Each structure stands twice: as structure tokens, then as C-alpha cells.
Amino acid sequence: MNTAIQFVRESYYELKKATWLSRREAWDSTIAVLLIVTIIAVYVASIDFILSIFFGSILGR
After folding, report:
1. CB neighbours of 11 closer than 8 A, spacing ≥ 6?
2. What does the buried/exposed string (b/e) look like for 33-53 if buried means 16 or more CB atoms within 10 Å of the residue's CB?
3. The overall pTM is greater than 0.85
């Protein structure tokens, strides 16, 4: 039990040392991630669509 209390205490002190993002920085990072994920999803979907047409025509489907 003593090691668990020591772990919680040390974790608390480490979290106090951390530098947290401001609300604006967190929002900007979230928007950037969503934009990048959307761009990658559209890219992958486009490649998938083109390849399905290509291989569908080769396989006669």
C-alpha cells in the first residue's frame, strides 16, 4: 500500500511540473488534427475508389 501512495504522490508532483497547453493552443491543435485526418481520409478514399474501378475493369466486374 505504501508504494501505491508513493506512486500517486510522485505522479502528482510530476504533473505539477508539466507545461499544459492553453485553451487556444488546444483548440488550434484539435482543428489541425481534424483537418489533417480529413485530408488523409479523402486521399485514401479516392485511391480506394480509383483502384476499385481499375481492378474491377480488369477482373470484369
Report:
1. none
2. eeeeeeeeeeeeeeeeeeeee
3. no
| Residue (of 14, 10, 16) closest to 2 by Cα position | 10
Can you read off the three cell numbers belonging to residue 44?
A: 485514401
How long is the chain? 61
pLDDT (tens digit per residue) in 25-55: 999 999 999 999 999 999 999 999 999 999 9
Q: What is the DSSP string of the chain?
A: -HHHHHHHHHHHHHHHHSPPPPHHHHHHHHHHHHHHHHHHHHHHHHHHHHHHHHHHHHHT-
